[in-house]
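Quick illustration, no need to memorize.
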Amino acid sequence: MVTSSHEAMHRIFQEDPGIFARTFDRLGLPFAEPVAVSLLSPDATELVPVERRIDTLLQIEGADGVSYLLAIESQGRKDPDKCASWAYYLAYLHAKYGKQVILLVTCQDVGTARWAEGPFHYGISQWRCMTVRPLVLGPHNVPVITDPEEAARDLPLAVFSAITHGHRRDADTLLKALNSALQTVDDLTAAIFRELTELGLGSGPAADIWKGLMVVDTSFFRSETSQKLRAEGREEGLAQGLTKGLLLVIASRGITLDDELRTRVAECEEADQLGKWLERTATATTAEEIFAQDPEDN
């Protein structure tokens, strides 16, 4: 089942695709900073009754002139069946777009991260016809950012660090640093990254700490804990940010909107309603599921 934590672990790359290049640069793998990024449909289904969907698919144009696809998968546990899906994604995307493909897997526990690194071989022992070696980001290699100034210098990486290391005993130090860094940016940027952090932490001690920080700091987004505390004057800006985020997530999940629904989203100025639609995108597979009328509205 798709969870909010799963969604946040790959959606952060839609907000800032350069985060993976900066992280791997620290690990000695020199990826050029992206200069152009296109969000592609994650649907990898052919004319067969089996749906295959990548979490996030980006087309990257690097500063070094290299163009490639970045397929991002969020993995919550070891799953032997997933390896075959990854092999399929790499071959299918290369054939469809005629570009080289990098598979990036994000994990929140060390065991899953180590497993996901592979390599996964396909063929018999005498001859391996294909080997899959994902790039993996997890607690074993994502930097731990506890300094507010460092967090402010690279906010998306600080958010990803807090989500990845949310199970640490000192998670409160990361979250406090991130919260301080969010106070140095505009309200709309802070709103997006606060929500992604809350989604990524899911439930547990770290999530409770984060909710407590948001109650104390009233410059936050629209979390369940603190939405009643936000100022009326920020409603319009939040609605604009939610509209942008909603359309981005819908596109990333390969869901098509007709003109009527797209107009409905564009003209909606109620942050609470936009927030409900955004929450539904975590599990919805059709536009009808996202925009279904609430029973209490009948």
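The radius of gyration is 20 Å.
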